[in-house]
Amino acid sequence: MNSPPPNKILDCNGKTLDLSRPQVMGVLNVTPDSFSDGGAFLDPGKAVEQAQRMVGEGAAIIDIGGESTRPGAQPVPVAEELRRVLPVIEALQSTIPVPVSIDTRKPEVMRAAVAAGAGLINDVYALQAQGAVATAADLGVPVCLMHMQGLPETMQDNPGYTDVVDEVAGFLSARAAACIAAGIPSGRILIDPGFGFGKTVEHNLQLLRHLDRLVSQGYPVLVGLSRKSLIGKVLDLPVDNRLYPGIALAVLAAWQGAAVIRCHDVRETVEAVRMCQAVRTVGDGTSLAPDP
Question: Residue 119, exposed/middle/buried by CB under 10 A (0-12, 13-18, 19+)?
Answer without folding.
Answer: buried
